[in-house]
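Weekly modeling sync, notes
Attendees: S.R. (lead), two postdocs, one rotation student

Agenda item 3: backlog of single-chain predictions. S.R. asked that every request posted to the team notebook include the full sequence so nobody has to chase files. The rotation student volunteered to paste the first one in as an example of the format we agreed on. Action items at the bottom.

Example entry:
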Amino acid sequence: MVAIDTKYLEGYNRSGRLIASVNALVIHRSLPYSTAKSIDERLRFMNERRYNAERQLIRYAPHYVINGTTIIQTIPETEAGYHIGSAFYNYTPLARQFMGNEKSANNVTLGVELCAAEGPIPKNVLQNAIPLVQQLIYKYNLQRHQVVRPFEMIKQIHPNLIMDALQWKAFLNSVYLPERVF
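Predicted structure, as returned to the notebook:
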């Protein structure tokens, strides 16, 4: 496995809240509007203050960011991230199942971002992600249905913002069947 480097995000992107439990692992991809070409640029992008059209502060902090050569831990696994929306989003029934009595899915999930601008996620990014995802699955005793894409948690997110169904199935098979290689 690629060594994990720790570069914690700063300021407003840190919730400071302890995660209640890890009930799911959410696999993201770089947001399409990010122009970051390197992982350091991606981290700078995450640390910048951004606002939506209503001038509300946008917070974004997955626990891990992975590209073709590097894995960066951006916040501790014990801290709730900002990666899957907040209470005002339209959570899916699956998200509400994972959440239990929690008000935010961020309180019960870990976020992993795969760096890819457009098209299929590059194989070297997926290959770097597999051992980390396997380690997290083992550590938190997560079943296959507990490794999800953002649209499985929030209805407004489009399925193509992570990876197509075939690539997703191959990724999950690789995670749960270690002998399979991309």
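Discussion: group reviewed the output briefly. The helical segments are 39-47, 93-99, 123-140, 165-176.
Action items: rotation student to repeat for the remaining queue; S.R. to check formatting next week.
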